[in-house]
Every structure is written in C-alpha cells, then in structure tokens.
Amino acid sequence: MSGEDESGVPTASAVDRTGARAGRRSVSRRGFVVGAAGAGALLALGLVGFAPSGEICRPPGAQDEGRFLGACVRCGKCMEVCPSGVIVPAHLEDGIVGMRTPALNFSLSASQLGSKLGWCDHCTASNGGVARCVEVCPSGALSPDDGSSFETMLLGKASINTDWCLAWRLKGCTICKNACPLDAIAFDEHNRPVIDEDACNGCGSCEQACVSLESASVGEGLNSQKMTARAITVHPVQA
Predict the structure, then answer these.
(1) CA torsion sign, 210 to 216 to 220 to 223?
(2) Fewer beta carbons within 10 Å, N or C terminal of the chain?
(3) In whole angstroms, what is the distance from residue 185 CA to residue 123 CA?
(4) Which stretches in the chain have pLDDT values below 70?
C-alpha cells in the first residue's frame, strides 16, 4: 500500500498515480495559461474591457463598486442561496476585473427560473426580509447598512425604452405597473408608463414581467430592428 516493493523501489501503480497527478497539474496550469492568454488577446483587441462596464446591477450591499470588487472572493455562495434565482456570475464581456463576481439578471425566462421569483424582494417572502446573500457572504463584500430592507435597499433604477415599449407604441399594456410592488410606475395623460425614480428601488419586478420581447421587432421593412432586451430594464446606481 506504500507504493514500493520490498526493496524500496516504487511499484508500477505508484508511478502511474504520480504521473497522473503530474499530468492533471500540467493540464490545470496549461488551461490557466491558455485562458489568461486568451483574455489578454481579447483585451488587446478591444473586444473586452479590463474594468467592469458600469452596467452591472449588484446584489444588496454591493452598490459601492470599488469596495465590493476589493472584497469579493468569487466564492459563488450568494448565487447558490438566492431564492429568487437572479444572482448570476458576471461574464468576461462585463470586464476582466469583474468576471465571475455576482450580478443581478432580471430577464431570465420562466424555463430558467422554474418556480423562483425572478426579481429581488430582499428575501422578504423566504427569509423574513433578511437577504440570504448577505448572510452567507464570507468576506463582507455584501454588507448593507444595519436595518436594510426591501423598502430601503437601492439596487438601481428602472428605465423605459419608449421605442420598444408596447404601451408607448400600441397603448393598452399595464403589465409593468401591475407588477411593481412599490407603485413606482404611473401612467401619463396618454396612458404611457413613466418611472417615479424617487420610489423605484431597482428590484427588477417590472423587468421580469415585461413582455415586449414577445412582439419580436420594432418598425417595418428596412427600418425594422430586432429588440435585444426588454423595454423596461434596471440600471445600476453607485453608492
């Protein structure tokens, strides 16, 4: 069992195991070098940025981007425990520094979410209003002020692309207003939705509910353009 025969010479099986471990280390190092080289090439070509894009919505307690990036250890615990299913890893195109850090995605489909909420209620329904991502964060990267709640959190602000919004184009759609738990969406004199920025906390309920993408495209003929996002989206704010 020691890996040597009676004369102290390593057995064939021990040599095989040692070689396999060395091979795995070699592959791991080679993969790291190749990955780093690939990221460097993309950076040099201008296809990705070094710093985060500035358009990444973060979980509760991460709105000070500089402090957050310095503290986050990319452990993924917040993603694992999020009952709403909206914390996802930031991608390479979001910036090399921010890659694999937690970001919020409020545009996930029903098939991706399953029975999960799809927007951030600060764990009000599942954990008494105490954000589970903050509870499990080992480094303090997610650390909102004491007493932070759904009403006081500020993840971002919703904005409406009026060229894509069904209510602005065709009238009649009230889905985002009906979905908003803070009454932060009102209708103007033409029955078009507008955001009350003082009331909006960026929870993402409106973005999750928006059905504009189901209308496929905007305009006709040569002027037609494919929509790439929902008509109402949440953009980050910095502390």
Answers:
(1) positive
(2) N
(3) 22
(4) 1-54, 145-147, 214-228, 238-239
